[in-house]
Every structure is written in C-alpha cells, then in structure tokens.
Design goal:
The protein is mainly beta.
Length: about 800
C-alpha cells in the first residue's frame, strides 16, 4: 500500500529546498514529541469547527479542544480582545489564524503544542521546545476512504471531488477542468438552490430566472438541463426542477462531456456535469435553526441537526427541514416549499454505507414566465420589469420523493467494491400558457392557456470495483463499473378553446380552460445502461498520470400515445465512448493536463411548441479536446484551459419542427483563480472567452456564424473579507457579467450584455451563550432588467432581491 502526500505553505512557493522540507516536516508533525503524535495527525486533517464569537482566550481554548490539540494562552495578554465565530471544516493552523485575525498575534508551535507569538516577532525559545514563526500549513494528501476532499484555503471550494468512474481526485491530479463548491460558500452566499452557487463560475450561466419552472444551465455554451444533475453519483434522483440548498454538502462541477466518468445523462447534456453530494453528520453535534426573509415578503424556517453514535462514532444521522412561503420576486406571486431530508450513514473500518430519503413539495402561484421572440423581428423588445408576469394566473405544483443508498466495501487493501441504488417519484401539475405567435418588436403576442401535468418514475443504480496494484514502477488504479437508469414519463396536455391578444408590458388575462383536467398517462420509457473500464497509471512517483478508459453505452427509448397507450416510436442504439487524459507535474505545485473525451446524447424528445411535438430525434456523439495548466501557489490556485467541444446543432425549421442542422463547435479559453489572497480575504474569479461557431450548415449564409443564445464573453468574480477591526464582521461582493448573444443563427439581431452586482455581510456573535450568525445579501443591487436567453426563447433575470437570515446553534 502506497501513501503519497504533499504540503503547501502560505504565500508563494518557497524556492529554497530547505524551506520546502521544513514545511513538509511541519505538515507531517515530525517536530512533535512522541507524546504529541496523535495531535499531529489531527493538525494536518480537517476539523469540524463550532466556535461562537466571543473572548479571544475562550475561543482559542474551545477550538483547541475540538481539534484535539494543546495551546498555551496568557489570558492577561489578550484581555479585551475578541474572536469571530468559526464554523465548518478547517485545518488547525487555518482555524487558529482566522480566530487571531486582527488581534496582533499569530500562532506558533512548541514541542508540547501551540502558543501565541506577537505578530512579526522573531522566534523565541520556550520550555520544552522552540517557538516557530507562524506558517499556514494545509494538508494536500488524499482523504481517507469515504471522506470528502479537504477544503482549500478560504473554505469556499474543496481540493478535489468525485469523478464517477475515476473515483475521488485532487484537482491537481485531474485531467479536466473541475470546481467543487463547499457548504460554507452556499451558506455564506445564502443560496436557495444549486443554481445560485454555480454561477460563481464564468463557464456556467442559467437560462431561466429564479422562481421559474426550473433551473436550466448553460455550460461552455451548451444547454444542461436540470434533469441531468446527479445525486451522489447517480442520475434522476433529485427534483427535475431545482435542487434546494438545504440538502447540499458539496456541488461538484465537471466542465465538458463526461460520458466516460458518469455515463450518459437522461437529457443528453454535453456542456458539463453537475453532481450533488448530500449532507452527512459531522463528528461534533449540530442543531441549527435558521430563519430567512426574501423580498418582497417570503419567509422561511429551516432546521439542520446531526449526531454521531457508537464507540467510534460509526453511525451518523443528519436531518434537514425547510418550510417557507409568501411572495418572492414576482408581483402577486406566492412561493411555498416544504422539504424534509434524512441522511443516515455508517463508517466502519472496511464498510461505508449511507441512506438518503428526501421529500420535497413546491407550490408556486405566478411563476417566472418564459416566451419565444419572433425570429424575423426587426428589433429585440426591451425586457419588461423583472417583477412583472405576462402570464398572470399561472400555478405550478411540484412533488418529489427520493430514496437512495450507497455502499463501499474494502475487500482488501487493494480491492474495493461499491454499489448504489435509488428511486424517485416526481410530478409537475401546472397551468401552462404558451404563445401561439412569437413576441414581436413591440412586445405583442397571442396567448393560449393549457394544463400540462406530468410525472416521472425513475430507478437509477451503479456498481463497480476499484483495484490498486503495481506493475514494476507503474502504479495502476483500475475501475470497472456498470450504470443503469430506467425512467417512465407521462403527461396530460389540455388547451383552452380560445386565445387572446396580449403584450409583455400590458398582459391580458389568460383564456379560460373549459375541458376537464385528466390524469397524466405514460408517454415514454427510457432505459440507459453502460459498462466501463478505466485505468489511471502513475509514473515517476505521481509526476505523470495517464488515464485511459472506454464506456460502452446503450440507449433505448419508447414513445407512447397518451390517449390510446399505443407504441408510436422506438429506437435502440449503442455506442462506445473513449477517454484519454494526461497530467504532467514538472513541479510539485504545477500540473499540465490534456484530455480527449466523447459524450453520447440520447435523442431529444421534442417538447411542446413544435410541429413535431413528441417525436424522438436520433442519438448523437459530441467530442472535446482540452489542454490546460493549474498552479497551486499555496493559498491561491490559478488555472488556464483551452478547449473545443462540438455537437450537432438543434434548430427550429421553417415548418416549425425541431431538427438537427450542421454542427455547433465551441472553442474557448477559461481563466480562473480561487483561494485566499491575504489572511481573511477570500476570492473567486473566472473569465471565459468563447467562439460558438456554426459549421457545415444547411443554410450557406449561416456558415461560420455564432450559435444563437451563446455569449462570447462571461466573467464571475467575488470577494469575501473578514474585517480586521471587527473580526466578527465579514463583507462580500460579487460581479457577474455576460456579453450579448444573437437571437438567431442569422446573427442579425443581438441581445444586450448585462452585469449583475451582488453585495452582502455577515456578523457572528453570541446571544445567551448560543452562537448566532446574521447574514444579509442583496442580489442585483442596481435592479437591472435583462434577458436570459437560449436564442429566441427568453425570460427576464430576477429583480433586486434582499435575503436576510439569522442562524442559531443550540
């Protein structure tokens, strides 16, 4: 069994070998006396901190107890000084540093533990050892089996994440562009759904607004449906509309086709993969009650509680509950949510098992509308007020129930077997108006009302084995896996007899539906299966990592007439998708990588609004070429990547059919940086430059044009700063910019670019001896109205939204 580890030291990487070795010795705890060996293990790992704001001496001692280390504090020296609250996963040194921010002291080490050193003071002798100047040392070693990847400096992202078939990987060992967002970031930004967090990356944009029908994404310029979000490595098990933040421990983002890593997804998205990791109980007891307010009048109450039991805390139970209701971001709207999520897990010496049960009910009156713009219009109409509803009277009731379980068993030190199985029952019942004519330059259209009720019943599973062995100097990590997905979907669609003239600025009442509402009937059956094998070979002590893999996939889709139950169409197709990835590390903190990946997309089932509604289009492949460099500077990681992703292009034909026409080839450059710039100053910034070119088009004039609805420049940047003069107070801000994009492939009309500014603050204190966190965020500070678009299909981004919350730990 081979164990590899590395350590990173704050600031730029030391050039001198001696300093580098000293940092490695600190991370490994080699300077501790034998009696302190248990402490050194904890020092390089993760501490689940729960320290309320309060007197500095008390906070330091409480954190030291939670971390299992010793600290010497002269209470007289720090009398009158306070420390901010500290909650969530952190390392020992980073936790002490954050508690000491602005105090004038830094942490030092002795043979018996830790001590305080005046900021900037020279090292001094101490009884039993030497006081060392404070170095922030964070572990870069792989987590233990079943553990999450460690948080990176600042705690907003993790050092790595799961990659399906390829297992859990550190970002620096991954031949892809990935980001792994932590629950700390989700809480501090007061995200309500996964979409609120994912837009921190410039390569991700939402094309639907908050409180709409669903969260639909665009990654690297390609649509990614909410139905293609994974849950603990399996598809189809979370709501097909949106994932509530209350169930999320990590959001793992993989950019580009991921068919080899995760298998074919239900809706065939190829821009990237999104996987949700559910919450588990931490080692420290947790009972947190949070009250929330969202403008204009939406109030909520949530509970998060977790406990571990057993001699070695083998068993864990985590419960999350949410109730909210009231007007959100639409005038006259009402958004009501009820959520219950229970996670049970067992972590033994060789067995790790978990069970998740989720019940989610969302009921919305007047949800955010979407509509098609006239492709031949002489101008794009200005977006209406973001709080307006040009379909007054809509309703949407969403119900989801999920049960899922995962298990891993270490048969030997070199062989692990695993499996997962889940079931989800979901339904959407809605008043579903649609325009019978597209919106013209003046905002005019004709509307018809309808009921569109639907259901899905999904079973999703996986099984596999991981082997680790050496052949001479080459270390192998081999994974053999099977995935299976089966879903039955049904619907009932009933239109109003008449239609009405309307306008997006002066909407008319929806026509009355006189037909009786009926239960949805089966419309489709989808079965996706695959078998895959991958081998990551390590050369020269992990300096070179070569991954080769292949997945054989089968897609079977049957369509049925919902009135008669008769089979109307069927296809059964299979394909093999390969992957090759290479990581080369010329230096410990530099990774050069490249990959070739293919994605397989099941044929689109054409939705409402087209002449060929209900038809099933043929499956197709997509291809990605990517190369990049990642540099971990210690507390800041920077990345740069160039890529090309291509797939058949979907268009609306002159006869109003949805069809494929030529190819969309997106070539791009991604730049990003994340981590902690200075003590207490956390940052995330990214920029994406894209050329979404149409090639081999049937219309000669469109050859070389940009694909409709795809921006060529996007930027996301955020700062989170713990103020040194009031260490309990943190301020944050975020800027999201999206350039204009074209209405159609003809490239004659272009949407305006838009920039959204968000600001926020949080204050950690103690009330009645209980830790309290107060948070305030304002999204879209300047209340900009702007179109979110995929081309002719548009909605308006959310208006200025104020979100307030107060959390109390009991």
């Amino acid at each position: 069994m081979r164990v590899a580890s590395d350590a990173s030291v704050s600031g730029l990487r030391p050039v001198a070998v001696a300093v580098h070795l000293a940092g490695a010795m600190l991370a490994g705890g080699l300077l501790f006396a034998p009696a302190a060996q248990a402490q050194s293990t904890v020092a390089t790992g993760t501490v689940n901190a729960n320290v309320p704001a309060g007197p500095l001496a008390d906070s330091l001692n409480r954190f030291a107890t939670q971390a299992g280390v010793a600290i010497a504090v002269d209470a007289e020296k720090v009398r009158g000084k306070t420390a901010p609250g500290l909650n969530g996963a952190t390392t020992v040194e980073d936790g002490f540093r954050r508690l000491l921010a602005g105090s004038g002291y830094q942490i030092g080490r002795t043979a018996s533990g830790y001590t305080l050193v005046a900021q900037g003071a020279a090292p001094a002798a101490a009884a039993g050892g030497t006081v060392l100047p404070a170095l922030q040392v964070t572990a870069n070693s792989a987590p233990l089996p079943g553990e999450l990847q460690r948080p990176y400096a600042g705690g907003q992202v993790a050092r790595g994440g799961s990659l399906g078939l390829l297992g859990s990987r550190n970002v620096m060992d991954t031949p892809f562009s990935t980001v792994n967002y932590t629950s700390q970031l989700i809480e501090d930004q007061q995200a309500r759904t996964a979409a609120d967090t994912l837009i921190n990356d410039s390569s991700v944009r939402t094309t639907t607004g908050s409180n709409g029908f669903d969260d639909t994404f665009q990654i690297r310029g390609f649509a990614v449906s909410a139905t293609d979000v994974g849950f603990n490595g399996m598809y189809g098990l979370v709501s097909q509309n949106r994932v509530p933040a209350q169930i999320i421990e990590r959001i793992e983002l993989l950019k580009g086709p991921g068919a080899l890593a995760n298998g074919i997804n239900p809706s065939g998205s190829i821009g990237g993969g999104i996987n949700i990791l559910s919450k588990r109980a931490g080692d420290e007891p947790l009972t947190r009650v949070t009250t929330t307010y969202q403008s204009d009048a939406n109030f909520g109450l949530s509970v998060d509680t977790g406990r571990r039991f057993g001699e070695n805390k083998e068993w864990g139970v985590r419960f999350n509950g949410l109730l909210r209701g009231g007007e959100g971001s639409i005038d006259g709207g009402d958004v009501r949510t009820g959520l219950g999520s229970l996670g049970v897990d067992y972590r033994g010496e060789r067995v790790r098992w978990s069970l998740d049960a989720i019940v989610q009910r969302d009921s919305t009156d007047n949800f955010r509308p979407q509509i098609s713009l006239l492709p031949t219009a002489t101008a794009i109409p200005s977006p209406p007020d973001a709080r307006s509803n040009w379909y007054p009277g809509t309703t949407l009731v969403q119900k989801d129930t999920t049960v899922a379980s995962n298990i891993e068993f270490d048969v030997t030190d070199w062989l692990t077997v695993y499996a997962g199985l889940g079931y989800r029952d979901g339904s959407n019942d809605q008043v579903f108006p649609s325009s019978t004519t597209a919106v013209n330059a003046l905002g005019n259209f004709v509307v018809r009302n309808a009921y569109y009720d639907s259901y899905t019943e999904t079973t999703s599973g996986m099984a596999g084995t991981r082997l680790r062995f050496d052949t001479g100097p080459v270390h192998h990590s081999v994974n053999i896996a099977f995935t299976g997905f089966q879903q039955e979907g049904g619907n009932a669609y009933i239109q109003s007899a008449g239609s009405a003239a309307s306008n997006i600025y002066r909407p008319s009442q929806l026509p009355v539906i006189t037909a009786a509402r009926t239960d949805p009937r089966k419309a489709s059956e989808t079965t996706l299966t695959s078998v895959a094998v991958a081998d990551t070979m390590s050369f020269l002590d992990d300096r070179i990592l070569l991954t080769l893999g292949v997945r054989d996939q089968n897609v079977t889709v049957k369509s049925y007439n919902t009135a008669t139950g008769a089979l109307t169409s069927k296809y059964d197709a299979s394909a093999t998708t390969p992957l090759a990835g290479l990581v080369v590390k010329p230096l410990d903190y530099v990774s050069l990588y490249a990959n070739y990946a293919e994605g397989l997309t099941r044929g689109t089932i054409v939705g409402a609004g087209y002449a060929n509604t209900g038809a099933v289009l043929a499956p197709y492949k997509s291809k990605q070429y990517e190369a990049g460099v990642k540099v971990d500077w210690g507390t800041l990681t920077t990345t740069a990547a160039v890529f090309q992703v291509s797939k058949p292009n979907s268009v609306r034909t002159a006869s109003n059919d949805l069809a494929y026409d030529g190819e969309q080839r997106n070539r791009g450059l991604e730049l990003s940086a994340y981590g902690e710039i200075l003590p207490g100053l956390r940052a995330m910034a990214s920029a994406t430059f894209l050329k979404p070119e149409l090639t081999r088009t049937a219309v000669a004039a469109e050859q070389g044009n940009d694909a409709a609805g795809v921006p060529d420049k996007t930027f996301s940047g955020g700062l989170d700063w713990t103020t040194p003069w009031v260490p309990e107070l943190s301020l944050n801000g975020r800027v999201i910019h999206t350039s204009g994009s074209y209405l159609t492939a003809a490239n004659t009309l272009r949407f305006d670019s838009w920039t959204r500014v968000d600001i926020g603050a949080r204050y950690n204190t103690e009330v009645g001896g209980k830790p309290v966190a107060l948070r305030a965020n304002v999204e879209n500070l300047f209340d900009k109205n702007y179109w979110l678009t995929t081309g002719t299909y548009v909605t308006v981004g959310a208006p200025r939204t104020v979100v307030l919350s107060a959390s109390v730990d009991f």
